[in-house]
Amino acid sequence: MSVWDDVVGQDAVVTTLKGAVLASRHASGEAGARAMTHAWLITGPPGSGRSVAARAFAAALQCTDPEEPGCGRCHDCTTVLAGTHADVTLVGTEKVIFSIDEIRPLVSQAQRAPARGRWRVMLMEDADRMVERTSNVLLKAIEEPPPRTVWLLCAPSPEDVLTTIRSRSRGAHLRVPDPHDVADLLVRRDGLDPDVALTAARAAQSHVGLARRLARDPDARERRRRLLAVPAGIRGVGDAVLAAAELIDTAGADAKAATEERDATEKAALLRSLGAEAGTRLPPALRGQVRQLEEEQKRRATRAQRDVLDRAMVDLLSLYRDVLVVQLGAAVDLVNTDLEHEVRRLAADSTPERTVRRMDSVGVARERLEANVAPLLAVEAMMVALRPQAS
């Protein structure tokens, strides 16, 4: 099984990355190092598989198979994919942005020669989550890289990173894969029912990770169905306010469920390392470390809640997209095939112009969340705009 098998529907990008690996192998010594671009910017919409493609590329760079780089069987391939290879550093953040203190150690680490592999690979997910000052620290490492270091930066689009970083990186842009390709992957790798897999792939708009969760978790499918039933039930401002509050509460509960256990484990581990017991009063000298951890966890929870809300808004956009498709009589498949009856009812009760205005209101709410507007205010304004009389 090749490392490229999970890079779904990205034939052009896979060809480019394979070609780069082969070019660096065919040249030996310093010429081989020069043949490899020292920084890559791998972009694509959410769910297109940016980090999957980057990991596959990192594995192929380290692969020891002389005939098939990225064989998926050798020790280097398997450890890269597992995230345990000594010369491949995986960098991500669960906070809203990277801090400058998180980037500086990476710059130092990138200067070291690889310990045992062909390359030292610095794979950075969410490269768009850097402010300009932090990006400038990374820029220095990319401008003057060691001969055997490769940076793989992942972001939604080239415009999401600093212009100077973009100009010094080679681009590889992923597209949204076909839902049938995603469904085939779920059937092949997870043994899921083909019909369930295809419905989930369409509902997830080809986001592989989300499609897998929807296909495997009936509760997730039911939560999504309840969310998409909300617009039909909004008749006045009161309904809109209640719907907004419910969505915020659900997002908060989901975010808490996703982070609570990990938070408790991290705090218990820190207390053990400090020689303290849970529930006891800490000396002043130790409180700062616990407070710092709690602040980190709070920022992580904030991002988790925003991610849940943003995903809900994307689902709402998919609903109105389907409504608009029906209203215009477009010959394309619906995203929400399991909600076709509800889609057609909403289409009959509105006009294309109103549907577009509602989609705009959802888009504005997403922008407001990104700009750190209070989530409840942003969601309330969106829900009010979804009322029939608001159109």
TrEMBL record:
Family matches, as SUPFAM superfamilies: P-loop containing nucleoside triphosphate hydrolases (SSF52540)
Matching InterPro entries: DNA_Rep/Repair_Clamp_Loader, P-loop_NTPase
Gene3D superfamilies xref list: P-loop containing nucleotide triphosphate hydrolases
Taxonomic superkingdom: Bacteria
PANTHER family on file: DNA POLYMERASE III SUBUNIT DELTA, REPLICATION FACTOR C / DNA POLYMERASE III GAMMA-TAU SUBUNIT
Protein's UniProt name: DNA polymerase III subunit delta
Biological source species: Georgenia halophila
